[in-house]
Amino acid sequence: MKVAILSDVHANLEALVACLAHARREGAEEFAFLGDLVGYGADPCACIDVVRAHAACGAIVLRGNHDDAALGGLWADMNPVSRESAIWTRGRLGDAEREFLAALPYVVARDDLLFVHASAAEPKDWEYIAGTVAAGRCLAATGARIVFGGHVHQPMLYFSARDTVSAFTPRPGVAVPLSKGRRWLVLGGSVGQPRDGNPAACYQLFDGVSRRLTFQRVAYDWITAATKVRSAGLPESLARRLEHGT
Ligand code: ZN
């Protein structure tokens, strides 16, 4: 059974639709959305609609910090661009969208897999895993063999063996066997707002039988997505980010 894992959609409908179509062509039958469905992008309600339809068919859907912010949970250290987009997003959501976001869990465990938006250590603290120390903290907080997370918008793979945590930069399209002898933390990058210098959308495919993981990059119509951001009156930097992947 192949699972498609999509994180940080950020209200980018063009990227979301392109990734889902790609995943289906690659044989994905299950889906997991790891939070930050909204925020930054211009299509929060349309993206929630798409994700909600997948949830109705059994998909895992988590809550991210930008989903929290759109519900009114603005936090003090939010930067001005994030705050502006959160306020804009909050104004677009109806009751049904708010109810859907408010009911989302922070963590889901399934078999020996754990799905979380930020870190398994303190999921509601929204820690950015920026290196092996934070990755180790995340892995130490759970007994799961594989943790799937998002939040940092840059694809990265960490693994631990005998208490040592190592980092590995994955190559798109190249399957990595996640051996059972190690524990793994998969940070998949962002569907709707990549920040690693490549504007193509990120998602991953995990084969639960062979335990092989493939990071995917999907070219999509980021010109349209950026144009919508500008037309919505959202900060110009958010449009430029989509065009440049930075
Ligand atoms: Zn995000």
| Rg for CA atoms | 17 Å
Number of domains: 1
**Unreliably modeled segments:** none
Straight-line distance between termini: 33 Å
- Principal-axis shape equals globular
Structure write-up:
The structure is a single chain. By secondary structure, this protein is an alpha/beta fold. The chain has one domain: 4-Layer Sandwich (Purple Acid Phosphatase, chain A, domain 2), CATH 3.60.21.10. The chain has eight helices and twelve strands. A six-stranded mixed sheet has the order 3-2-1-11-12-9. It has a six-stranded mixed sheet with strand order 4-5-6-10-7-8, with helices on one face. Strand 7 and strand 8 form a beta hairpin. The longest helix has 13 residues. The mean pLDDT is 95. The site of zinc ion (ZN) has 7 residues, from loops.
